[in-house]
């Protein structure tokens, strides 16, 4: 903790050699010295008279937070003209109203005309008020601000430039936020075509060029330019085909068409791009973003510094491969071509992938071995995740068998007619299955997930974006290569894309124009994060797998220990493993109960006692912290219930609607349980581990869904399809069916075409 003027603030280890800009967004969190440029449209109200106080307060809060982290913040601000315009208008109206009241009475007040106000006069009247407002806002965060007014001459005169530089460094050393603006009260009109004057000079004709010049002069790490548009588009914003450019590289100017400038202010987007490229050349990273959008303006600056995908990032380092946006477009186009193939051709691709998994077994296992060694050396993965990461010959063989099941069952998945209706004579309606579009599947430590999900996407004609964890990078790379090799036999290689860029999951979840469905495969925390981050994109999955087994009074002794052992111990890291064991109260202190406890001890399962179970014991195991816990390991909770009704209530209260089981020989009790438990999978006398797409005969699954819309339980091909309606008519119009029309609705159900049984 350092102190200045008795105000403490925390410093962060933020330092780097200046001279080269950051190559990736993820590096922006290391920025130490930051300039925030506030455009006129950000600072002013929509009527251009007065300031947008709410936005300004939010910006000051964000700048203060970063300053108190130990960063050195500077603000280049507009707004003096708008603030002065508001003050002068008020003075003129007041003056006119007094004069007219004296000479002509109140009746003419409404006809008063306000003269055009000269910008320099407005700036002179507004500077002091604008600065007073900044000072009042920064004071709320125990931060001092200082005003600096500059003109072009201050940068061209060597002595003035040194003075400015020294002043700014001294202010930063004292933990003061400099607020810089062009001295619009005296500045001459900008000269045309004087924006760029060589490598080392940029003409200060607006606050964009001022911010760039200042950023380079002060060896700033990051320049954030806030305007009233989301960033840089490849064509004027608002045009039909305009797309936001995520990363802009020097030399890309030719591919951009600039529109008109902002509603207020001196510079337009072209001026901003020129200033940004000049700053980038000087070693300062630049982001242009929207500072006016009500949903993001409250955290736009901090989001940029955290490396989130906001606005347009200027970088000198061009990635080797396509951007994730380009991959999304490739997956969309490839998916449509895939859907247009014959069913036999899609099946052929999947059969080929199954063969490659066994033919290239050694290469796959070698890549997987690298992942396992790196994970063990770094020690960053828990044992359950290491088990999920591991591949084996038997796993690959099972994968190949599952893929062949998918291929065999996919013959009539796309384009299948599920309803036919004769609306009227010669007017027939069909409802047919079609792919959802582009799927984004995010998975952790599960390289076997890649070929499974790819096969299901291929069978259902969907484009696919895959985002795997870093821990499985080598395995995922070779499995994706084999997938694309299989797709190539029918020219649809681009339909399945592996995202290898530094894209954060949260950023991927914002690509609502490219992605139609997100399917997370991983920890409950991952699923919750994705559900929270997804903006406008549906998420299929479950956040937790809290599976229950209820042992009824009429349970078979032979079945109980077998089912419990398999449910908990066969693969404890799986989402369909037993987590809570419910025991009927009458079974306590019986030989059956002792057998259950002995079996769990032999299998080295750590037992946690539920509160009711603990009350029956003199010496109980550790009491459970929460009855809503997914252990994912050789641990489980035991709780006692009095009836099957109480068991159902417990499951509804603490379960996750995944998979729940009853063990009993009483058919009536079993049927009550099956009908009343509201979970995706409910079993009688069977292990929870059967909740799986492969075991259900689906070939594989993209995941298990606990949602109540579209798909539920293990999701195979059917869950990746939606429908569309096809209407075939012959010069039909709705007016023919009116009260005095010539046609009548029939709405007759027609027989469906015979499904293929091959």
From TrEMBL:
EC number(s) reported in the record: 1.2.1.41, 2.7.2.11
GO terms under biological process: L-proline biosynthetic process
Keywords: Amino-acid biosynthesis, ATP-binding, Kinase, Mitochondrion, Multifunctional enzyme, NADP, Nucleotide-binding, Oxidoreductase, Proline biosynthesis, Transferase
Top-level taxon of the source organism: Eukaryota
GO molecular function: ATP binding; glutamate 5-kinase activity; glutamate-5-semialdehyde dehydrogenase activity
Matches recorded under PROSITE patterns: GLUTAMATE_5_KINASE, PROA
Cited SUPFAM superfamilies: ALDH-like, Carbamate kinase-like
Family: In the N-terminal section; belongs to the glutamate 5-kinase family.
Entry-linked PANTHER family: DELTA-1-PYRROLINE-5-CARBOXYLATE SYNTHASE, GLUTAMATE SEMIALDEHYDE DEHYDROGENASE
Name of the protein in its database record: Delta-1-pyrroline-5-carboxylate synthase
Protein source organism: Sagittarius serpentarius (Secretary bird)
